[in-house]
């Protein structure tokens, strides 16, 4: 069994496994930007295949998509042209002083900041890159959901789909590492093409709503919205015109924060 990131190394497969034909994530992000009068210059940090960056570009924004995966960036440049795509590490990046009016960080990308130093590095980089009054829009798992709940931990999640004539099956097991405050994920891929199984290991930081408010304030951000839905990955999903909720109890967390005008 090999250890690899099958989805990151195969962006086509990623989009087949996680389709978003209605571009819910991009539309939700644009709704947040529009409601809070964000400027046109947007950084999509952790842009992956580029489909959300391309949506924001398509509605008239000047978008830079940033990711650490060269495979994802190469795919994005070909499949979703329009935005500028650059390689950058969300733990610390310098893409110019006051270069953006908003930073968008979707699909739990922010939770790859596993340590406090990494989270500080991300927010310090956002502070440097954002113009005064700029927005941070983020969507992620909600650490608070795992306080007393085990439904996502009790049994592995199995998904199957066919891509380019090959049937794939993924078995995902989640465990909570309370000491490191991480949600650890083990995903085993099998396929009917005779190749050996592939095992992926990754983790997300479990951030809690009040903890997130505190660290954002420490970096000069005012939280405008912090809620569990509706959003692009909630059930039911966000729909055009829906306003943010007031609770932070379900398994997703949505944040809009504004950088101080005097940073």
Automatic annotation (TrEMBL):
Record keyword Hydrolase present: no
Protein name: SAM-dependent methyltransferase
CDD domains: AdoMet_MTases (cd02440)
A matching Pfam family: Methyltransf_25
GO biological process, one term: methylation
InterPro entries documented for this protein: Methyltransf_25, SAM-dependent_MTases_sf
A molecular function (GO) term: polyprenyldihydroxybenzoate methyltransferase activity
Keywords associated with the record: Methyltransferase, Transferase
Domain of life of the organism encoding this protein: Bacteria
Residue ranges the record marks as coiled coil: none
Domain Methyltransferase residues, every copy: 42-134
